[in-house]
Amino acid sequence: MDAIILQVLNGLDKGSAYALIALGLTLIFGTLGVVNFAHGALFMLGAFCAVTLNVILNTSYETIDPDRTDFLGNPLKVETPYIFDWFGPEVGGAMIEWSVPLAILFAIPIMVVIGLSMERGLIKYFYHRPHADQILVTFGLAIVLQEIVKYFYGANPIPTPAPAGLVGSFDFGVLLGFEPGSIIYPNWRLIYFVFAAVIIGALFAFLRFTTFGMVVRAGMADRETVGLLGINIDKRFTIMFAIAACVAGLAGVMYTPINSPNYHMGMDFLVLSFVVVVVGGMGSLAGAVAAGFLLGVLESFASMAQVVDLFPGINQIIIYLVAIIILLTRPRGLMGRKGVMED
Amino acid sequence: MLGLNSKDQKLFLVVIVVTLLAPFILNPFPENSELAQFNAGYPDLMQRFAIFGIFAIGFNILFGLTGYLSFGHAAFLGVGSYAGVWMLKLLSMNVVPAIIMSVIFAGLFSLLVGFVSLRRSGIYFSILTLAFAQMSFALAYSVLTPITNGETGLQLALDDPRILGVSQIDGSIPPTNFFGLEMRDGFELALGPWVFTLNFGYYLCAVFVLGAFYLSMRIFNSPFGMMLRAIKTNQTRLPYTGMNPKPYTLAAFVISGMYAGLAGGLMVAMDPLAGAERMQWTASGEVVLMTILGGAGTLLGPLLGAGVIKYFENIFSKINDTILYEWFSFMPDGLQDVFVFLIHPFIGKGWHLTLGIMFMLVVIFLPGGVVEGGQRFMRLFKRGDKGSKSSGDAARSASPAE
């Protein structure tokens, strides 16, 4: 029992990342009708926003401390981040410490700007081109974006730690009445899951309970009629693209302490997120979220030692296997709408 | 002649001449000259041109004609490679059985994958093929290690049985050969300052490229090819006319899978090892890039695309800052630094950036790829000649109204 709970928990953090990326993907598809292969790159850009903020906060100048010497007897050089001078060492130190959560604030405007310029500058011209063209041009864009990041940050993963106060693990065993130590779960992954749940909830609430969201949903159902009613639906869809970019970016920001970001992390996630979107059903938001968590949890179950002993190699292929089975038995995925993407 | 119309005959003749004279055409700069680094006429690269040309031609039969975008074609190339290496290990170092087995195995595997994947179309088909390819990639790394040798890759060994050949000659693995003619054999031809390498392996590849190209021309012009185009144009209308598109698409899928297998077999024949990374989705993405860059649905496009990408991969990535400084040495120092700084991100290890930008520009402005670019370029020169313009208009109006 405790092993099962542990696997469910283990699946949740990856599932959260899949769900957040897939949600953005399917949102873009549902509104603009564009298959965005650069969405993984947006996730990666978000992660590198966190890295960049960390670098900025740590920018320091060198002073020579006359009283102390290093082990060679030379005067000791001390690096002081500029931020210590501006906010004092205590606040400055806390800011460096909490750079990943702070990066959320830093990443939102950046991702919105990137999203808007991407939509207005490129995607706009591809509304009426075939899906193959959309896939290809965004695929090209993804290559360009990740090569740019590689140029500035190199090819190696860059460790970006979570705040020290949040690093430990949480013992669910005690909470649920099992042996202490049977279900130990890192705090940050729990935070990631809660964060993802909040974002997903906020997005759904936004679409469900605001006028803006209502117009967007109407546009997703019948774009032309909404346009004929005198509503500028393109503008709203552009804003939705920026929001989707933002969601992917924030998913990336918060993911940095779990896995050190490298320039091709986006592509790795993109392929799986696409599988998730298709399994959930193209254009279905709830489907994307459900499929994201489902596949994340399944993946972690499949990597249990007992399962791997029974079916060797299953942990590597489970997602694809499930995707194949679902696509063959349910042509539109779990919750796909009729008539979407069937040409 | 050969069942081709006169236009295709001319095209085929040009392709034959270019392929056979490639060692000369691709080596336009004299050895030891500054531009010699742009020479592409060395055997290794020419073989890759040919092999990826075959791969892309095959992919184009599926994507260009039926419009089904497969994101898992590299799996067939990988399966073909493994089958080929096993033939070299078990039977003999003659490449013929290896290539035949590569084609057969890739064909069987693509039959299986195609049978399942083609039950869906559009993006669902793409994801299904991608899923199959990623599964084969993951399995080749983990469970199938006894067959694929996992991360190390499948290689020849001294104690392989090779029942029709010899296990080893003087303590080393015998080279791959075609009835005694060794693949790496060749001779160098020095004409003045130029040095041309004529390599037997390349010429074997060239023969296969010509065969593959000829077959694809025949398919494009056949009723079968017409049927595939009909599938691309309108999938819903086709069944109403009493046609079942399924067998035709499956046939196209298997044919393109066998092309991929042939490419894998040739790869093994030139360099007898096979690794799982050949099946990764990035490899599948590469063949998509090649086909689109050259021009999907055109005869020559995939060959050109494969050539361009492989050329860039090998030549562009070799240029470094020192070479750039040499080029801009005529400029004043400050300006020279600026130029080198500006160009630096696009060369050497950054050639992927160039590739990505080039690819985006092609998709945005030239959906027909290099071939369309060439046609537009030719039309510029024919401006004065009114006939061509009106024929272009006729061609445009002849395309069916939806």
Please explain how this structure is put together:
The complex is a heterodimer of chains A (343) and B (402). In chain A, helix 1 (2-32) packs antiparallel against helix 10 (233-255) and helix 11 (265-280) packs across helix 12. The longest helix of chain A is centred in the first third of the chain and has 31 residues, at 2-32. Chain A has 14 helices and four strands. The mean pLDDT of chain A is 85. Chain A has one domain (2-53, 100-329): ABC transporter involved in vitamin B12 uptake, BtuC (Orthogonal Bundle), CATH 1.10.3470. Chain A has helices spanning 2-32, 39-57, 82-97, 99-121, 131-153, 172-176, 187-209, 211-221, 223-228, 233-255, 265-280, 285-302, 305-310, 314-329, and strands at residues 60-69, 75-81, 169-171, 184-186. Chain A is globular. Chain B is mainly alpha-helical and 402 residues long. Helices cover 64% and strands 5% of the residues of chain B. In chain B, 43% of the residues are buried. The A-B interface holds A 35, 122, 125, 129, 131-133, 135-137, 139-144, 147-148, 150-151, 267, 271, 274-275, 278, 282, 312-313, 316-317, 319-321, 323-324, 327-328, 331, 341-343 and B 67, 69, 116, 119-124, 126-128, 130-132, 134-135, 138-139, 141-144, 235, 281-282, 285, 288, 292, 345, 350, 352-353, 355-357, 359-360, 363-364, 367.
